[in-house]
């Protein structure tokens, strides 16, 4: 219909507007209304272009990973008051899209001889305060000279990566190093639950002894049930998709990229929707909890 109105406006110098509307089979009042609203349409288009530029900057800063919800949350954090539906309309028009997650292959190798710890989480991946419940898992990233294994500890209260370690193997010392890093950072309460699957690294005597010496409680899900460690599995899906699924040339390059993603982007810059505080980064969520406890 806009094309008809545009044609009638272009030809009104040569023909009466009444004749043009009759030939084009459009209402004369509608044609006048469309012409009067042209300035407003141009203003809206200019505003959408400006918004698209801001969205593009946020999208680039997010490593081309944010979708509509996080783009909208980040704009609000920056002081830009904009409707979420408008962001959802502008992004597809400019072909700005977030990443989607893919399914991967599990590395869990259960140790049938080891006696598993009880499940102290029970699929309740919520914690009232930081340092009381941590989940962990192992994954691998490919490099041309061989894979690099990652172990991480995720705080359920803040979703902050409290500890992480990287090596060219996934033996017990890898998960012990990640646990030690989380403990050295401080904030773990006595009796903090350390949850994982029943992989051989977590069932090892070395990991069990280290957990006991630090005054922590070990927890394990059931064999073959990824849902019992869903929070850690979900984080790996997020990590692999947002860091980019590719093969690095060297393990050293992979280490730098993983460290940068974890400490610079994920913990300190990537907002996540908290059930109480709204969209905050993991570090900001921890600080908010600390301020609430101090008060």
From TrEMBL:
Gene3D superfamilies: Ribonuclease H-like superfamily/Ribonuclease H (3.30.420.10). It holds the Pfam family HTH_21. It comes from the Bacteria. Involved in the transposition of the insertion sequence. Residues 126-290 form the Integrase catalytic domain. One of its GO terms (molecular function) is nucleic acid binding. InterPro entries: HTH-like_dom, Integrase_cat-core, RNaseH-like_sf, RNaseH_sf, Transpos_IS3, Transposase_IS3/IS150/IS904. Residues 108-123 have a biased composition (Basic and acidic residues). It comes from Streptomyces capitiformicae. PROSITE patterns: INTEGRASE. Signal peptide: none annotated. This is Transposase. Residues 100-123 are annotated as: Disordered. GO terms for biological process: DNA integration.
